[in-house]
Structure formats: structure tokens, C-alpha cells
Amino acid sequence: MKFQEEYRDAGAAKKLQQAIADVATRDWTIMEVCGGQTHTIVRYGIDELLPKNVELVHGPGCPVCVTPLELIDKALEIASRDDVIFCSFGDMLRVPGSHRDLFDVKACGGDVRIVYSPLDCLQIAEQNRGQTVVFFAVGFETTAPANAMAVWQAKKRNIENFAVLVSHVLVPPAIEAILSSPTNRVQGFLGAGHVCSVMGYEEYEPLADRFQIPIVVTGFEPVDLLEGIYRCVRMLEQGEVGVDNQYARAVQREGSRSAQGLIEEVFDITDRKWRGIGTIPKSGYRLRDEYQGFDAEQRFEVSDMEVQESSQCISGMILQGIHKPHQCPAFGKECTPEHPLGATMVSSEGACAAYYNYGRFLHAQDESSQLHNIPIPAD
């Protein structure tokens, strides 16, 4: 990809590594709130390059991972109906419900399809008027504009056999919940660059002020993350509070006003349950009253379903930065990508999947070679 190499440059990474070591005089704990960032950190061993007094912990940055178990079961029940074509992005199909996943439903004859955009579902709905096409609308604020556009278009074009199963969650309330917890040990945050490209970072400023912390909006490549960590540690060392923007090439303070306007047209803010964490007030989206006809939960009368989480899975503690994946007794044993106990092991952005896929704690790694041999995969 054009210009990607400069953000994977070993020389630049090594300079930032040294700069972090030079500036860090105290113990600091920093959390990234993005599953894509988590995978980059683990893949390139960025956390292992840091001085011992700077620790990275992984937050609830994977929307698939925090989708509650009962919503997965609702999806499974809806997808099992003969009159439904159930559409989703691919990473939701292997997320386990109470007893099965969407691949099992598909194997048993359910019409479950992978799509690349929610707008694809409108074409499917127009071609299959005798069935209801349901899209599993999962994501942070990043995917909300496209999902809102699909619902808005469906209403405008009178595509009545289209519905969405909404599981949208919001980042700032999750940060607030972590900081408000008595178990919190996070002192600074790396903000999710893709979320901020849509929403900007104005809404993070009151959080930084209230909790007296630094938040650094950060990109996704190794150099991005090392620079974000450096900026965060420097602010901590100097006692600075506020929001810094490392990802200025993609993020502006105000974000995308047009995208925000579309979200506000279709969605209201609501309380939302997070898998393994519980209900966080005003942390999600729901369809506004004028769009309730497109709500799959209401249309298929599954809104009251409640289920019990696995007692073996500690994903809630992992998502809050209290534990790391390798500290789970089931990691790599009872819980693997082939037989997952929770979504963090199967999602493409899950922390457990990152630790498992990149061999973390399964074999020794030569830390000294990390910077000199940062791989650049073919695009």
C-alpha cells in the first residue's frame, strides 16, 4: 500500500523505542481501545519492546467481542427461520452463542450470507420480496454511518422486508466505565483512530478533564503506535491532561459532520449490555422511533431473551484490562479458535485470537530482532 512502509520503518521504530525508554521514569499503565491496534501490538511485539515500567493492557476495543451472548442467541433464532435471509460480516459467523454459532445454522439449512456492506442487503431484499433480509449491525461508531444509510435507504425506497439486529456500542462510555471501576489501574489511553475519523475527539476532552488523564488518538501501524505510546508517556511524566492527536493524517477534532448527522437521523443513544462487562449507561445505539419498523428484535419478538455466560471464559476481565489472555486457565486448552469459549478467541480483532494466532507465550521470541525484521506483508 502506498506510504505504508514509512509507518513500518524499523529505524523510526527503534528511535521511538529509545525515546520512550528515555522519557519513562515511573511505572505507567496504558490501554489501547481498538482490536486492530491490539493485533498490531501483539503481531510486532510492540509491548515487549517497551521498558519494563511501561505496560500496555488491552481494552474493550472489539465490537464483535463485546456483543452480548443473548444477542448472539437472538441472531441464531432469527437466522434459523425459513422466511429469513440472515446477513452479516464474516467475523460474526463463528462467534459462539449458548450452544452453536451461525455456521451451524447455515449447515442446518439456514440462509446465512456473508456481505461486505449493509447496502448489499437492500439489493438482496429487493430480489427476495417473499423473505425478510436481516443484517447483523455490529460495530463501534465507525460502522454506524453505513448501517444508518442502509436503514435510511430502506425507508426511502419502501423496502419493507429489510431489518437490522442492532448491536452498536460507543467508545467514550466504555472508557468512562473503566476509569470509574474500583479495579481500574489504567492511567492513559490510546484512542481508536478509525472511530475518531468519524466522531472526532471533542467528546474525549471532557473525559480527559474529569479523570485527569491523557488520551492520544493513534493510528494502527507499528510506528503510529510507538509514537502514540511515546506521546502518552510524555504527557503522563509531565502531568499533562487532555487529548493529543497522533493520527492527524486521518482524524480531525470535529470528525465527519455529515456522518454524524446521518447517525443522529437514524439512531438514538441507549443503554447497552457489553459481553462479560455488563450494562453501561448510554453506551450504544438503537433505532429511532420513526425507524422502529426495521428493528429485527421487535419484528421477530426476541427482545426479552436472557442467557448465562460461560463460567470458564474470563473475557470480561480481559476486555477491562484486568487480565491478559494468557492468564486465562482455558487459553489454548479448552479455548482455541477451533473450540472457542468466547468471542475474544474467534473475532478478527479479539485479544485472545491475537495472542493465540501470533504464538504469544507459546514459544520464545527474540525481542532484539523485532525492530530489525518488522515484516511487510504483501498487500
From TrEMBL:
Keywords: Iron, Metal-binding. One of its GO terms (biological process) is protein maturation. GO terms for molecular function: 4 iron, 4 sulfur cluster binding; carbon monoxide binding; iron ion binding. Pfam families: HypD (PF01924). Transmembrane segments: none annotated. Belongs to the HypD family. This is Hydrogenase expression/formation protein HypD. The lineage of its organism: Bacteria, Pseudomonadati, Planctomycetota, Planctomycetia, Pirellulales.
